[in-house]
Amino acid sequence: MLLPEKLKKAFEKVEEDNWMLRAFLKGQDPEEVDRIVHSLHKELFDGFDCIKCSNCCKAIAPIIEENEISAISSKIGLTYEDFRNKYLINAREDFMINKKPCPFLTAKGCSIYEHRPINCREYPFTDKEEILSRLINRIENCSVCPVVFEIFERLK
User: Is pLDDT above 90 for 83?
Assistant: First the structure.
């Protein structure tokens, strides 16, 4: 599996192929694509340490749902309002961390790990149903997550 620091360059080399793969996959049986991607997700994440990588924390500003703000703000000792003002921007009906890398990523890892948003817990979403409806985001995630990159390479 690629090291996180080599992903961007590797992604640039295969990005066009990934878009062609997307077009091909759109014509395939959605349940079969889900089955294959879920199998690859399980196999590849079994041997991968997301915490050591943390590339998603460096490159993506996660969505934080309204109901998650209280737990996170309490964990770091801020009021709900102070937390929103300091760390969030409005993103549709939810909120998004206002900077990259994530301000809660430290040298020791995620400082709010037990309270991290569902968006962080579920990233990169390759274990979710209806992968075909989310291919644009998954292709973009190939430049961030070594596992997603490898899933797409194996799909080819």
Answer: yes
pTM for the predicted model, two decimal places: 0.91
What is residue 127's three-state secondary structure?
coil
> Burial, 72: exposed, middle or buried (Cβ in 10 Å; 0-12, 13-18, 19+)?
buried
Q: How many Cα atoms within 13 Å fall on the side-chain side of residue 108?
A: 3
Asked if residue 93 has pLDDT above 90, the reply is no
Q: 18-30, pLDDT tens digit by residue?
A: 999 999 999 999 9
CB 96 within 8 A of CB 63: yes
* Whether the Cβ atoms of residue 2 and residue 10 lie closer than 8 Å to each other: yes
Q: How far apart are CA 2 and CA 149, in angstroms?
A: 8
Quickly list DSSP for 39-62.
HHHHHHHHT--HHHH-HHHHH---
- Enter the tokens of residue 88: 């969030």
